[in-house]
């Protein structure tokens, strides 16, 4: 089990979020999520400018085992999507916290989001393993 | 097992050689049949040119590579791969059945019509429903018919706001897909720790927009929904209807009836529960059964019994008899041959046999579950008795020895067992869904347990063979990722001539 990046925040649906300097946030799925899904074969991305709700469907990731919704941790509008995932969804498997980012969002009210610290998320993962 | 494990053969097209014509028995002038020039084709069809014996050997070898219920134990959970008695096949092939034309007058096909009427009656009796239609061509179409009837019912009452279908997160993926296809919105509700529907979440989801709920019972988790009476009462009180997904009907056959659990509509996979051949995409039969409220909406045609001066005549009931019907789902009445095989099977096992099917399907699953638990495998729902299937989770094997559910599934092939269902239901990590069916002997079940134990022991002792499995089959571990991303099933001949085949 790899260590969780300390500069990210996490959700109980296994998304991560990074606050960028310009006030936007970058969102992806965690290493745990990609490992549980297995090799990804397809990612359905939102449209640029699309309005997202907290906990609303933001993207769909499909692996050889299953298709799974990715939920938006914050409300806001989509600034940018990681187009590279279209040809190479495995970037999420290879580098979930880096090249495998999914969406950049301009959040409306980030304080309303229900986010976890790395320690809390680690505790959640430890619980799942039992 | 006498299966042919020689490496992957050439395609019949690759064995072709231009100009080869070698029939065993056909008259030499067969090709000179007098076809009017206007009807003759202009170019030669792109068919393989091989000798008759090459063709016979090619397809015989292919058939020997097959994993099937006739050659292997096939515990594919949720699919009910039980034995298909030969008698059903033989009787369904009687010339009176195969020679019947669907447009011939019904008086000329009373044997078939009688059989289908009796099939409807038997299905009503064994499920506790008031009406049955045999028109859906497969389970998915049966589901579509079921939800379409629920919608038609609400619409007929002017209750047009009811468009929400509640689906537990353990459901088959076809359930939400069906609701969607019928123009409804899916509300997903979670499952409790012991596999039952979360009643509080159900209460929260119910309301004036509820069209109905789709449930599988026993559920895809292999356990019986214990609070089904309460669920039915809550949904009905909220104005919704209950849909029963018949995927797991085998478990309760002859013991409990969906009608008695207050379901309003059900679909049955005759190709599972009533033992008609399936796999490879069909043909199937997804007959639907309805309670009183949905009777007017049944898809047509159905077979009715009409009293005449000469006795009973079995005739089609169509839109005239069912003016509110949701319509037709197939050209005539479903897959006639499949429905016939199910009819013959039900007549053979009889009322007592139905009960025995449910009991032995459940007994076999529970025996297998207990033996695997005693051998150290972790059950997903250890406090629950299995229905006709159960779930093993390989969470700890995956963590300790990197032996995943997929690895064990592939390794079982080397032991001559078809793999159980893997990674379904999605709620359980690294899971195998195992359904032995009632038609397997204790010795077969014991052999399967031994193979499971050997695979894990091998992994425990540091062996890595399982990562390479299957090693004994013509095709090794497939690249699932590539199959999904770059699927290519089309044969394209090399430019010019096909490869020379070695003399057979």
- Low-confidence segments of chain B, given as residue ranges, are 496-504
CATH architecture of chain A: Beta Barrel
Mean pLDDT of chain A: 92
In DSSP terms, counting alpha (H) and pi (I) runs of 4 or more, how many helices of chain B? 15
Strands of the largest sheet of chain B, in order across it? 1-7-6-5-4-2-3
Mean pLDDT of chain B: 92
CATH topology term of chain A: OB fold (Dihydrolipoamide Acetyltransferase, E2P)
Largest sheet of chain B: 7 strands, mixed
Please write the string of helix (H) and strand (E) elements of chain A: EEEHEEEEEHHEH
CA radius of gyration of chain B is 26 Å
List the uncertain runs of chain A. none
CATH architecture of the domain at 87-349 in chain B: 3-Layer(aba) Sandwich
Strand content of chain A: 25-35%
Number of strands of chain B: 13
* Quaternary structure annotation: heterodimer
By helix and strand content of chain B, what is the structural category? alpha/beta
User: How many β-strand runs of chain A?
Assistant: 9
Q: Using CB atoms under 8 Å apart, which protein chain pair has the greatest interface?
A: A-B, 10 and 9 residues
């Amino acid at each position: 089990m790899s260590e969780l990046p300390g500069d990210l925040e996490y959700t109980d649906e296994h998304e991560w979020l990074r606050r960028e300097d310009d006030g936007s946030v970058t969102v992806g799925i965690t290493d745990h999520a990609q490992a549980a899904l297995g090799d990804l074969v397809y990612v359905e991305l939102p449209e640029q400018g699309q309005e997202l709700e907290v906990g609303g469907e933001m993207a769909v990731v499909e692996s050889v085992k299953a298709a799974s919704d990715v939920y938006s941790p914050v409300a806001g509008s989509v600034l940018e999507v990681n187009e590279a995932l279209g040809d190479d969804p495995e970037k999420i498997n290879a580098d979930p916290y880096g090249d495998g980012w999914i969406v950049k969002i301009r959040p409306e009210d980030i304080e309303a989001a229900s986010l976890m610290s790395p320690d809390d998320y680690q505790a959640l993962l430890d619980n799942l393993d039992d | 097992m006498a299966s042919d494990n020689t490496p992957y053969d050439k395609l019949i097209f690759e064995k072709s050689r231009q100009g080869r014509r070698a029939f065993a028995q056909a008259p030499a002038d067969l090709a000179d049949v007098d076809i009017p020039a206007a009807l003759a084709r202009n170019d030669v069809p792109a068919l393989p040119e091989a000798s008759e014996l090459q063709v016979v050997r090619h397809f015989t070898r292919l058939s020997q590579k097959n994993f099937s219920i006739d050659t292997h134990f096939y515990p594919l959970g949720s699919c009910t791969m039980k034995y298909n008695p030969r008698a059903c096949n033989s009787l369904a092939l009687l010339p009176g059945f195969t020679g019947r034309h669907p447009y011939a007058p019904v008086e000329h096909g009373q044997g078939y019509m009688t059989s289908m009427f009796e099939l409807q009656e038997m299905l009503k009796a064994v499920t506790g429903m008031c009406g049955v239609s045999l028109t859906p061509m497969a389970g998915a179409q049966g589901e579509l018919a079921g939800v379409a009837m629920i919608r038609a019912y609400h619409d007929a009452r002017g209750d047009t706001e009811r468009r929400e279908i509640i689906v537990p997160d353990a459901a088959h993926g076809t359930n939400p897909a069906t609701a969607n296809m019928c123009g409804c919105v899916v509300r997903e509700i979670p499952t409790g720790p012991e596999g039952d529907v979360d009643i509080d979440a159900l209460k929260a989801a119910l309301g004036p927009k509820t069209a109905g709920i789709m449930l599988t019972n026993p559920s895809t988790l292999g356990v019986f929904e214990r609070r089904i009476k309460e669920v039915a009462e809550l949904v009905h009180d909220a104005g919704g209807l209950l849909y029963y997904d018949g995927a797991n009907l085998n478990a309760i056959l002859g013991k409990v009836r969906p009608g008695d659990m207050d379901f309003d509509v059900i679909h049955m996979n005759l190709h599972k529960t009533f033992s008609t051949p399936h796999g490879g995409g069909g043909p199937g039969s997804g007959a639907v059964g309805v309670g009183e409220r949905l009777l007017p909406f049944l898809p047509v045609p159905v077979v009715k019994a009409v009293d005449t001066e000469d006795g009973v005549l079995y005739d089609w009931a169509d839109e005239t008899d069912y003016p509110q019907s949701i319509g037709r789902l197939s050209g005539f009445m479903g897959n006639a041959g499949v429905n016939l095989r199910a009819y013959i099977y039900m007549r053979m096992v009889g009322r007592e046999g139905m009960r025995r099917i449910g009991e032995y399907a459940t007994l076999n699953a529970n025996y297998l579950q207990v033996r695997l638990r005693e051998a150290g495998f972790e059950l997903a729902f250890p406090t629950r008795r299995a229905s006709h299937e159960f779930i093993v989770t390989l969470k700890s094997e995956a963590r300790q020895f990197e032996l995943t559910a997929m690895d064990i599934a592939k390794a079982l092939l080397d032991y001559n067992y078809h793999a159980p269902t893997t990674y379904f239901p999605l709620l359980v990590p690294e899971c195998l869904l195992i359904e032995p069916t009632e038609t397997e002997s204790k010795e077969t079940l014991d052999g399967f347990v031994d193979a499971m134990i050997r695979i894990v022991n091998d992994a425990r002792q540091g062996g890595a063979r399982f990562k390479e499995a299957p090693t004994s089959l013509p095709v090794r571990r497939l690249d699932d990722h590539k199959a999904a991303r770059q699927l290519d099933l089309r044969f394209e001949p090399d430019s010019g001539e096909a490869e020379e085949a070695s003399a057979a």
